[in-house]
Structure formats: C-alpha cells, structure tokens
Amino acid sequence: MAKCDSVPNRSIRSSDNKFSIQVNPSSLCIVDLSLAQIEEIATAAIYEHNRQVRSGSVNVKKDAPETSVSIVSLPGAPALCVKHFKNRGTGYTIKGIFRATHGVRAFQGGEDLFRLGFTSAPPIALIRNMRFGISFEEWLVMPIIPAAEELDRYMVKLIRRGWQIEEKLDFLNSFANFLADLHSSGVFHTDLKTCNIMVLEDTSQKQTANSGASCVRRIEFSLLDYDDVRVCKGAVGSKIRAKNLSQLFLSTPSVIDLDDRKKFFNQYFSSSDRLNIDKKRLLEMIFARIDGKTLLYVGPEGDISENWTIINKGKECADNFL
C-alpha cells in the first residue's frame, strides 16, 4: 500500500479538456492502490458519472442545477461516490477566483474529518476543469461506506419495524456523544439535517466467559456534504451549537418525542461538561429557532412533513429540559 506522503497536484489531459487532479494523501492509507492507479480510476469515475447522469441511470442519487451525485462501479476499484459541482454562471466562476470553490472546500472538509477521526471515507481525489487557471467545474471522488444509510431514513425504518426502548436509548446516547465530540473538536456542519448524516450499524458476536456468545451492537455516524463542513479553533460556540441542534430537531420524526429529545440533550450536555456550556441559555436559543416550524425529513418514499406543536415559550421549554 502506498505511504501517506504529501502528494502534489497534477495535471492530466483528455482529448477535449484539461483537468487538474489532486489526490488526497490520506486516501493512500486506506485504498490499496498506487498514486497512478488512483489518478486513472478517479478520471474514469467522472466520465462514468457523466454518462450515468446523461442516461438517467438508477445510480444517480441527485441531479440538481448546482450538483449531481452518483454511485460508480469500476473494475479494480472500490465502489465510489462522485459529486459534480456544476458551473453556475459567470458570477460563480469569478467568485471561485477570489475564494475557495465548493470542490476545494469539500476536499479540505473531508480531509479534516478523516484527520480528526470523524469519517472512514475521505475524498480520494478532486478533479477540476481548468481553463486559463480558472476552475469552471469540479468533481469530488470518494469511497462509499457500505451498508450505511441516511439518518432520517434509518430512524423511519426502525420506527416502522418497532423500535425497542433500550435500542432507541442506545441510539440517542451514541448520537449525542458523536455530536458532542464533533462540537468539542471545533467541527460543525452548516446544514446539519438528518439527511446529511450517515449511520452505520454493526452487530457482531462477542464471546464472554460466563454466558458464551452475546450480540454487540455498535453505531457509527459520519457527515455528508463535506463542502458544508467547517473547522474552527477550539470548541464550537453556542450560536453554532444552537443552529446545529435546531436543524437536527426539525429534521427528526415526531416519534422521537420530547422525552426522547430531553434524554438526547442531557447526554449531549453530559459529554460536553468540561466546556462549561450555559445549558439553559443554549436551550432557549434552540427553542426560539424552532418556534412555529414544522418537521421535515426524508423516508423511503420521499419527503415527509409533520406539524409540530410546541409551547411557544422558549424559557419555559428550556426549564423543562434541564
């Protein structure tokens, strides 16, 4: 396997365009491929992605004016996810001259998450369509996490199956710990809805001396849309915490009731105790943000909207949650 050495940007040519390709050094640690193979596979992946989008393949997960996303399978390579950041016009192109583009931010965000231990799927490569030194469009290539699914779909699935109380509590505690660790490490997501979080449930057998084999369940979380990931110095501040927690509150099914949400917040605060957070003030900020809004999340059949009636008194709600 290749070493995780610093890898410079390289330029490669196709018959009709000039692409600049940047390989993520971290990916060389987890993908058993040489640098040359990664460059070749990443380039083939974007052509396959474009072909799938044109043909309307079922492997295309999103095709919007700004971005498209597909799952790509190539010989000799792990299953890959390709995200295409499309050119949005002259203004968009000019902005990319003076500040980091969406592709560059996504590449850096994924690398930061991997470095800090919050994802097992860092970007493999960023490929940019460059003309006159200006980026017109970009493709981010990354491995997929097998068997992982979006958090909102995962919750809907368990709700319909019949979510056991202990199982739900274990989930709430695991997720609260993940989010507390994320914020304590200075990491936040500008659009932290449940559809932008992946969950992987691993159930394995563990041998014990007294009772023989027992079932061990482990839940892992990771973020989507790396271009919305930000890393700050020190722990995340209260305003951003309130924004993230409000986004999660409003994208979670109502079956996760106020009692469940209180348990989640208590665990989140418990895992963040060393930061001396003003819990009451943070809760007041959260309830002020969610006032009068409906719940919106995604299930297997598409978007689901629920009316959510909550007492329109931020301070009173905050007191009830402490």
What features would you describe in this structure?
The chain has 322 residues and is an alpha+beta fold. It contains 10 helices and 14 strands. It has a 7-stranded antiparallel β-sheet with strand order 1-2-6-7-5-4-3, with helices on both faces. It has a 3-stranded antiparallel β-sheet with strand order 8-10-11. Strands 9-12 form a two-stranded antiparallel ribbon. Strand 3 and strand 4 form a beta hairpin. The chain is globular, with a radius of gyration of 21 Å.
Query: Mean pLDDT score, rounded?
Result: 84
Order of strands across the widest beta sheet? 1-2-6-7-5-4-3
The helical percent reads 25-40%
Instruction: Write down the secondary-structure element order.
Output: EEHHEEEHHEEEHHEEEEHHHEEH
Q: State the helix count.
A: 10
Shape designation: globular
Q: How many β-strand stretches?
A: 14
In this structure, how is the largest beta sheet organized?
Answer: 7 strands, antiparallel
Backbone structural class: alpha+beta
Low-confidence stretches: none
* Radius of gyration over all CA atoms, rounded: 21 Å
Cα end-to-end separation: 51 Å
Strand content: 25-35%
How are the elements arranged and paired?
Layout: E1 10-13, E2 18-23, H1 27-30, H2 35-55, E3 60-63, E4 67-72, E5 80-85, H3 90-98, H4 102-115, E6 125-131, E7 134-143, E8 149-150, H5 151-161, H6 165-184, E9 187-189, E10 197-208, E11 212-223, E12 229-231, H7 238-250, H8 258-271, H9 279-290, E13 295-299, E14 302-306, H10 314-321
